[in-house]
Each structure stands twice: as structure tokens, then as C-alpha cells.
């Protein structure tokens, strides 16, 4: 293909700031909204046919099924749930006893109907999070999000009368969080107010806010020390009496300072590596290292977990007990306290293990959580919202790509019992789940999980997915949408564990960070090539999807490895690596990617900024880029601008941008179903998967 040099290919690597599409960053601007509306009409006219409507409705019906699992958390002895279905698309906040929840059809006590509230107030409300006051939990701060955004409106709610509190705590829309100090005092972290936001748009202060006090009069009791910090956080720790208060300042995405204090403010900065995770409970604390830590003549390796008495640590002692030792493919995924015992969630060769450590004056003792399968995707977490109230009860979620998830209760660290079983939503007969390894460009083995027909034909329509960032681990699970709209129609599903994730610890993450992000993309391309090498499929039959950080991945497949894919679906994406730090929460991700304002960092960022790398005359596969207007985390301008540039160069590029959804695929089940269905039908049409 010859290149038409009259085509405007700006911005380019040579002129990265010559951007003709900056006007599309004006989220609510008339010109930008006109562009988006025209693009939405074009996309829906091409792919929103009767088949789309049928599949969307079928998927929405699956999401709305009355026998789906209602996930719960316990507060003050009662289980709380936010339920969404066709009758309650925005959600119904409700509660029940554990005894009632065990029944096949529990009777719920309804607290707040989000659909009625939205209709009464003329707002596009979604429930984001709730913080209630222990031990009675009769008052709560409810966070209401417009259209699913991260920014929320805060309002006090009385759980006894089931009404918002007249003249109670209220705060206009902003990003933030809080904890109750007592019935009349909140510790608030919020970006609301002059000078209260960091460059990333998150809270830079903790304010002590008393009942009846104007927010402007609330005393600042803690503030970020650095003007470049990304957030501050606060939590009230009731595992001791009197309660203590923990303050933290996020220096970047992976580093923070931690202080111990009280209602008056921070008192003691803990002498800890800034990139460690610290989990205190009572007079004990566990520390997970990210990098090696040398104390005197002792060096503790990266990813080790250390235990010690908090009082001893504050006195200067460093006689740690090693509670976890990593291996080349053995990595900690999370740690938390439950009933005064520490639970470690571990992946060993991608198989799940759970260790329980019990501290005592005689030392630490360990055991395993019994009755959980290793060959499955298993998640375990505390049933109680407040660790100090917990009796050790845990919830477990167990699933695999062909087995719908079950919700199980672990009482007293005994074997789990089934509470709820999710329904089967697609036909699994004839499919198998297998694990494979591809060899990347530098010889490293990249694991991936394949779900598809037991007898491959060599021509399978494949859906690939990966993430590869922020130490986030990807594990295969039961996906109703892919099962119904892809597997049942003869397709194959692949989940890749590329570098940048947390599957194998810090080294695996760091290998796909900064300049290594490009290597993570090579990993994904290597998996696509391995599928062809193994005789599973052909390149033209491979579709790929990725969102958020995965948007960088998908657009790099477009510009770097176009010959390996038949179609691409890029969602809520980060793409423009030149300006990402200037858009919404972008500055908070410098520790993952680098700072484009520094010449050294731009040296590697430009190698995976697909917005700048895209050029005319290439054999790019078709791509659908989808975002949401209310995404206040990753700016919708990334998707808009990339689409505009690709279309200007004559490529088969499409944009879809619904008004609501936040950093997700929709605020309710029908919106999610529409977003997903549009993407999957786009992919299916271009890789030859039979849709009807």
C-alpha cells in the first residue's frame, strides 16, 4: 500500500505535541459532544441491528436473573447487599440475617431503592460505597455517584428509619473517602474545597468534621507533605481500646508513608520501606515487602511477609518472623486479618493456597484453610466489613471457565459450606480448559489459559484478553457474556498472564513496568503466535480485547503486531502517553509508566504511545474503541482522539461512548449488556464467528 502524504498523521513521534485533536478532550464541549454523537450513530447503525438487540437482551436477562448470587458483607451482625435486576436497574440496597440468607429465597429488608431515589430527585444516581458506624451500624454515610463516576456525593443515612438524615452530614460531589470517629465526628479525605485536591484529583488532606459544622470549618488534622503526592487516606482502627487512627500519604502508586495517630492527627511515622504493605491488628502487624530490606546484617528478600508485635516495632525492635517466602513462581496476592488471625492468599504456579497465621506470646503458628480446591479460581475474604468486629468468618468464591461460581462460608477456619450457587448460563458440553506457555521475544515463558472445543480444527475464532499492569493478577473465571456470545457459537477463549501483572510477584510486575511495558505487549503477541503454532487458529481469526491499562495493550497490537489479529476491541482505554498525566487521574500512574515531561521517560513512553506511533498505509485490523463519558479516572479523550486520528488516515476504526458507566461498561445490567454485546458482535463479524 502506498502512503498518501497528504494525509494528516499528527501527532507523530517526531512532533508529539502537534495534536490537532485536543478539542476532543473537552468532555462536555458542544463540538466534542457533536463528534461523539455522530460516532455513536455511525457505530450503532453498523452493528446495532436486530441481532445485537437480541443478544443484548439475552445477556441483560442473564445479568438480571433472580437466582444470581447476592454478594454480601456483614455489619453489626446483619448481611448487606446491593441487588440489581430488571426491576431495580440502579440497585436496591437491602439486608438480612445470616440465617435468612442461607434460605433458597431469603426475605430481605429493603433500605434504599436507588431507582426511586433517582426518579424523585431527577439524578442519575448509582450507589458507590457505604461506611457505617460500629458497633450499632445505625448510621451510615452513603456515597452516590452520578452515572457511575468515581466522584461521589456524600449523605448521611439512618438505617433504623431508612431515611436520609435531615441536616445530617452531606458533601457535594468529589473524589474521596471517610471513616467514622464517633457518632458526631467524621474523619474525611475529600478533594472537595479549595486546595484540597492533589494533582491527580484525589484528597490531599484529612479533615475532622463535626456534626453541624460547615465543611469549610472542619479542621485539617493531616496533609500531604509533598505537593506531588497522589492521595492521603485515613482509617479508624477499633481493634484496640481506645481506637487508634492510621494516616497514609501516597507518594506514588506504589509508595507511601504510614503514620500512627489519634483524633488530633498523626503522631508517629513508621520506619518502613515506602513500598511495603503493612497490615496491623491489635498489637500485631504484618509487613509485605516489595523490594529487599536490609536491617543491620539481615536482608529480607522482596515479597517476603514479616510479622512482629507493633509495640515492639515502635520500641525499635526488628526481630521479625518470616511468615511467607516467595519462589520463582510463588507469590503473595493479598493478606488480611480475620478473627485475630492473618490470612495469606498465595499463588503457587498459578494454583491458589491460603495460609492462616496465628500470633501469640509463644510465637506464630500456621495452618492451611481446608477444603478449597487448588485447580480452580478461588477467592477468600472476610465476611465482616470491620476487622475489629469479625469473628473470623470468611467467604469463598470458587469457579473456573466452565463451572459457575459458588459462594461458600468458612466458619471458624473450618471446611467451607455452600451458601449460594450461581446458575449455568451457557452450554459447557464439549469444551475443555487447558493451560499452555508461549515463549516471548526474550525467551521468557508466558502462561495462558485456553477454553474451547476439545478437538481443535485449526480455524477457531479466538477471543484473547490480558491486562499486564499495576501488579494486577489475571485469573480465568466463569464469564457469562463470553460463554453465551462466544463459546456457545464455536469460539475459543484465551486469558494471558503477561508481564506487568502480579501472578509471579514483584519481579514479574516490574518486568512489565516503565520501559518494560513494551515487553508485556510482546508477551501478548507471543501468545497469539503460539495459538497459530499449536494449530488452534489463524491470525485472521484472532480477536483481542483489553481495557484501561489494557487499552495501551490493544492499541499496541494494532500498530506493532497488526498481522497477528483479525479485530480489536479497546475499552475505557489509556492511549495517549504524551498527555496522560494531564488528564484526570493520570498523574497518579507515573510510577507505572513514567513521566512524559522527562526526556528519559519519554524515550520509552513513545515506544508504546500508539496515538503517536499510528501512521498511514499500514495493514491495521478493524478496531472498536469504547469508553464512557462519566469515566473520571481514564479520560474519554484517549478513545476519542485515537479514533479521530485513525479515521483521518483511512482506517477501519469505530467509537462508542455512552453517557454513563464510569470506569466500567455501564452503571446497570442493561447498559453493561449493550456495551459488551456491541464489542463482541463487532469482533465476531470480523473474525468470522457465526453470530446467528
UniProtKB/TrEMBL annotation:
Domain Peptidase S9 prolyl oligopeptidase catalytic: 486-688
Signal peptide location: none
Peptidase S9A N-terminal domain segment(s): 18-239
Keyword hit for Hydrolase: yes
Alphabetic keyword roster: Hydrolase, Protease, Serine protease
Keyword Glycoprotein: no
Pfam (any one): Peptidase_S9
Protein name as catalogued: Prolyl oligopeptidase family serine peptidase
Amino acid at each position: 500500500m502506498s502512503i498518501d502524504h497528504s494525509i494528516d498523521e499528527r501527532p507523530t513521534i517526531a512532533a508529539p505535541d502537534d495534536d490537532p485533536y485536543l478539542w476532543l478532550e473537552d468532555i462536555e464541549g458542544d463540538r466534542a459532544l457533536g463528534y461523539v454523537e455522530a460516532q455513536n450513530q455511525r457505530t450503532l447503525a453498523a452493528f446495532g441491528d436486530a441481532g445485537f438487540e437480541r443478544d443484548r437482551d439475552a445477556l441483560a436477562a442473564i445479568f438480571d436473573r433472580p437466582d444470581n448470587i447476592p454478594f454480601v458483607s456483614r455489619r453489626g451482625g446483619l448481611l448487606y447487599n446491593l441487588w440489581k435486576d430488571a426491576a431495580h436497574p440502579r440497585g436496591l440496597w437491602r439486608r438480612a440475617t445470616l440465617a435468612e440468607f442461607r434460605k433458597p429465597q431469603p426475605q430481605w429488608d429493603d433500605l434504599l431503592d436507588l431507582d426511586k431515589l433517582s426518579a424523585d430527585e431527577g439524578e442519575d444516581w448509582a450507589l458507590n460505597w457505604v461506611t457505617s458506624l460500629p458497633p450499632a451500624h445505625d448510621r451510615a454515610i452513603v456515597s452516590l455517584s452520578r452515572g457511575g463516576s468515581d466522584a461521589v456525593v456524600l449523605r448521611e443515612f439512618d438505617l433504623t428509619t431508612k431515611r436520609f438524615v435531615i441536616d445530617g452530614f452531606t458533601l457535594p460531589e468529589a473524589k474521596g473517602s471517610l471513616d467514622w470517629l464517633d457518632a458526631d465526628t467524621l474523619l474525611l479525605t475529600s478533594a472537595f474545597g479549595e486546595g484540597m485536591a492533589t494533582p491527580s484529583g484525589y484528597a490531599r488532606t484529612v479533615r475532622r468534621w463535626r456534626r453541624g459544622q460547615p465543611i469549610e470549618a472542619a479542621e485539617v488534622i493531616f496533609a500531604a507533605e509533598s505537593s506531588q503526592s497522589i492521595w492521603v487516606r485515613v482509617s479508624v482502627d477499633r481493634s484496640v481500646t481506645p481506637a487508634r487512627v492510621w494516616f497514609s500519604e501516597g507518594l506514588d502508586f506504589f509508595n507511601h508513608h504510614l503514620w500512627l495517630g489519634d483524633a488530633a492527627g498523626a503522631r508517629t511515622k513508621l520506619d518502613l520501606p515506602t513500598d511495603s504493605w503493612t497490615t496491623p491488628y491489635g498489637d500485631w502487624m504484618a509487613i509485605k515487602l516489595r523490594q529487599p530490606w536490609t536491617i543491620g546484617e539481615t536482608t529480607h528478600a522482596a515479597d517476603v511477609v514479616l510479622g512482629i508485635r507493633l509495640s515492639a516495632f515502635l520500641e525499635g525492635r526488628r526481630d521479625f518472623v518470616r511468615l511467607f517466602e516467595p519462589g520463582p513462581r510463588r507469590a503473595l496476592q493479598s493478606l488480611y486479618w480475620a478473627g485475630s488471625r492473618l490470612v495469606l492468599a498465595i499463588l503457587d504456579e498459578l494454583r491458589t493456597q491460603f495460609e492462616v497465621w496465628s500470633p501469640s506470646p509463644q510465637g506464630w503458628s500456621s495452618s492451611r484453610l481446608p477444603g478449597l480446591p487448588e485447580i480452580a479460581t478461588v477467592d477468600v475474604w472476610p465476611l465482616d466489613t470491620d476487622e475489629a468486629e469479625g469473628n473470623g468468618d470468611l467467604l469463598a468464591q470458587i469457579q473456573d471457565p466452565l463451572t459457575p461460581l459458588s459462594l461458600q462460608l468458612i466458619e471458624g477456619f473450618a471446611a467451607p459450606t455452600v451458601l449460594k450457587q450461581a446458575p449455568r448460563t451457557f452450554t459447557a458440553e464439549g469444551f475443555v480448559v487447558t493451560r499452555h506457555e508461549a515463549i516471548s521475544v526474550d525467551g521468557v515463558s508466558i502462561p495462558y489459559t485456553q477454553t474451547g472445543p476439545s478437538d481443535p480444527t485449526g480455524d477457531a475464532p479466538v477471543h484473547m484478553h490480558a491486562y499486564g499492569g499495576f501488579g494486577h493478577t489475571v485469573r480465568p473465571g466463569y464469564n457469562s457474556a463470553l460463554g453465551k456470545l462466544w463459546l456457545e457459537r464455536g469460539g475459543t477463549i484465551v486469558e494471558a498472564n503477561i508481564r506487568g501483572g502480579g501472578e509471579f510477584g514483584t519481579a514479574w510486575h516490574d518486568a512489565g513496568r516503565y520501559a518494560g511495558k513494551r515487553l508485556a505487549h510482546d508477551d501478548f503477541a507471543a501468545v497469539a503466535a503460539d495459538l497459530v503454532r499449536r494449530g488452534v487458529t489463524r491470525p485472521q481469526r484472532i480477536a483481542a480485547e483489553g481495557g484501561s491499562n489494557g487499552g495501551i495493550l490493544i492499541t499496541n497490537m494494532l500498530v506493532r503486531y497488526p498481522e497477528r489479529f483479525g479485530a480489536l476491541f479497546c475499552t475505557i482505554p489509556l492511549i495517549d502517553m504524551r498527555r496522560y498525566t494531564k488528564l484526570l487521574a493520570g498523574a497518579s500512574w507515573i510510577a507505572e509508566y513514567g513521566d512524559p515531561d522527562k526526556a528519559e521517560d519519554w524515550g520509552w513512553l513513545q515506544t508504546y504511545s500508539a496515538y503517536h506511533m499510528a501512521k498511514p498505509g499500514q495493514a491495521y485490523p478493524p478496531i472498536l474503541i469504547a469508553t464512557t463519558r462519566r469515566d473520571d479516572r481514564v479520560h474519554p479523550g484517549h478513545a476519542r482522539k485515537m479514533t479521530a486520528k485513525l479515521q483521518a488516515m483511512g482506517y477501519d476504526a469505530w467509537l462508542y461512548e455512552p453517557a454513563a458507566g464510569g470506569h466500567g461498561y455501564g452503571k446497570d445490567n442493561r447498559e453493561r449488556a449493550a456495551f459488551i454485546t456491541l464489542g463482541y458482535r463487532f469482533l465476531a463479524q470480523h473474525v468470522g464467528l457465526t453470530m446467528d
